[in-house]
Design goal:
By secondary structure, the protein is mostly helical. The protein has 3 helices and no strands.
Length: about 100
Amino acid sequence: MHLELVIAKVITMGLGLLIVFQAYKGYRVHGSKPMLYVAIGFLFISVGAIIEGILFDVLNLSIFVAGTIQTTIVAIGMLVILYSLHGDIASQTENEEE
């Protein structure tokens, strides 16, 4: 793997984990369940950012298999974040109707 690519992936992972930390902190301070799901979603996306290279270079999986696994992990993270947004809207609507 090229050094520049490794550096870019480590920076991406670090930024993702910083977002995870901030979202989890928001969940703990405010008790906001959607923030917990945002943290979980970004954790999946952060892992997905580096997993392809690990699977390809370290475990010697084909680039197709490694890319498929990486894309699936990122998609799961996006679905969890989407759920957090939908769940927040649904709970606000329920509270307004009461």
